[in-house]
Design goal:
This protein is an alpha/beta fold. The protein has 2 domains: 119 residues, Rossmann fold (3-Layer(aba) Sandwich), CATH 3.40.50; 157 residues, Rossmann fold (3-Layer(aba) Sandwich). It contains 11 helices and 8 strands. Helix 5 runs antiparallel to helix 11, helix 7 packs parallel to helix 11 and helix 8 runs parallel beside helix 11. The longest helix has 23 residues.
Length: 304
């Protein structure tokens, strides 16, 4: 979002890998660390490494008095409230919202967006909770049906393009954490570069196929995704699609479709993750798993 909206170059790092990199490689950059608890060991180590390299840092956390919030040059609180679930849900969507706000403010500071153009974007963002609330019951109804249909499946592939790829990764992670099922997230265009060998009637594809029709790049990605849907349908794959409301093209190619109202692409991403969280929840309880106490996991990883 930051790159595409403001034009500022961004690299995404695993905190656990960043900790082990050469100091030389970390210079000449501001560093953003993201953590629900603000105490995650490897992320806190990355923050301290950035400080040793002389970098300015920003912490996005859900705990205002956490170690990261105190030690960073600047701190943003997600203001999501106490996250009771071990697999983070509302705090993750809160992080997405913070990052979108940061992207808009960065774009204003670089002149990529004028102050006048920024105002309607903020008004649109403020309407997002109500728009999600209006769709939530239908998402839940659809996901219940999907979970019943897929409850015997053991492997899933999640696919997305552009901003929707990390959402696919998050959906796969939630299914692993909550339902103990093997799931992997891939960029949609990479499916045929190897992972397609795994696709069969026992490995459903979860394909994010939403589109912002006002964005030419989004339309281009969507067209490629529709072609992949056609190819996978021909191949005999089981497909759960996430698509724009009223998208009969995608719905005709999928076994199940979760519909999301049309909106700007960054907001689509924030919406998409909610039914994927519901999917992991219902897949878990369908299989008799206590989602409040996932095995081998803790609320915050305090040791590396």
């Amino acid at each position: 979002m930051i790159e595409e909206i403001s034009g500022i170059a961004v690299d995404v790092e695993y905190a656990s890998e960043y900790c082990c990199r050469s100091e030389v490689a970390t210079k000449q950059a501001a560093v953003i660390v993201i953590s629900q608890s603000g105490e995650t060991a490897d992320t806190l180590a990355a923050l301290r490494k950035a400080h040793r390299a002389g970098s300015q840092t920003l912490a996005i956390t859900n705990v205002v008095d956490s170690s990261m919030a105190r030690e960073a040059s600047v701190s943003f609180s997600t203001e999501a409230g106490c996250e009771r679930a071990i697999p983070a849900t509302k705090s993750f969507t809160g992080q997405l919202l913070n990052l979108y706000l940061l992207s808009l403010l960065a774009a204003e500071s670089t002149g990529a967006i004028s102050s006048a153009a920024l105002k309607p974007l903020l008004i649109e963002l403020a309407s997002l909770p109500a728009r999600i609330r209006m769709q939530l019951l239908e998402w839940e109804r659809t996901v219940r049906i999907v979970a019943q249909s897929y409850h015997e499946m053991k492997n899933f592939l999640f696919l997305g393009r552009g901003i929707h790829y990390p959402i696919a990764r998050e959906g796969a992670l939630k299914l692993k954490e909550s339902a103990y099922l093997h799931a992997e997230g891939y960029p949609s265009g990479e499916l045929k570069h190897g992972p397609n060998a795994l696709v069969n009637s026992e490995t459903p594809l979860v394909m994010i196929a939403t589109v912002d029709h006002a964005d030419a790049d989004s339309v281009h990605r969507y067209e490629k995704t529709v072609q992949l849907l056609r190819d996978m349908r021909h191949q005999g794959a089981q497909i759960l699609a996430i698509a724009n409301s009223g998208d009969n093209i995608v719905a005709a190619l999928a076994d199940h479709t979760i519909f999301i109202d049309a909106m700007r692409e960054p907001l689509l991403a924030m919406c998409e993750v909610v039914p994927l969280q519901l999917l992991s929840y219902y897949m878990a309880i369908q299989n008799g798993i206590d989602v409040d106490n996932p095995r081998n996991l803790t609320k915050a990883v305090l040791t590396e």
